[in-house]
Amino acid sequence: QVQLVESGGGLVQPGGSLRLSCAASGRTFSLYALGWFRQAPGKEREFVASISWTSSRSIYADSVKGRFTISRDNAKNTVYLQMVSLKPEDTAVYYCNAADSEGWGTSWGQGTQVTVSS
User: Fold this and answer.
1) Would residue 40 be called left, alpha or beta, if left means φ above 0 and alpha means ψ between -120 and 50 degrees?
2) For 34-47, b where at least 16 C-beta lie within 10 A, e where not — what string?
3) Measured distance CA(7)–CA(1) in Å, rounded
């Protein structure tokens, strides 16, 4: 089992920046990747970005390409999501998830709220 704790959300104006953190603990040696997902009010949860746990390979949703950057610090077992040029449509609860050989986990934490508003 891998435990994940998200942090770093908040209220920001359009065009602003935020950095989210996801700290992993437990069986991190079994990880294939860590990723970020988000769920806006009234919408389904959607994929945002992911990064391999053992290589530099990363994947982004088209809606965030060029604005969001996912990175990791293996020494700290932490994955970051740097978000710039934020838009109101980025407003959502952001969740971290971990993938192992069976795919993405099926349980979700509390997430961290990101609100982009003037």
Assistant:
1) beta
2) bbbbbeeeeeeeeb
3) 20
**Mind listing the pLDDT tens digit for each residue in 40-51?**
999 999 999 999
Q: Exposure string (b/e) for 76-91, b if CB count within 10 Å is 16 or more? A: ebbbbbebeebeeebb
3-state secondary structure of 35: strand
Burial of 92 (0-12, 13-18, 19+ CB in 10 A): buried
User: Per residue in 3-13, pLDDT tens?
Assistant: 899 999 999 99
Q: Which two tokens stand for residue 100?
A: 């192992």
Q: DSSP strand E in the chain: where?
A: 2-7, 10-12, 18-26, 33-39, 46-52, 58-60, 68-73, 78-83, 92-100, 103-104, 112-116
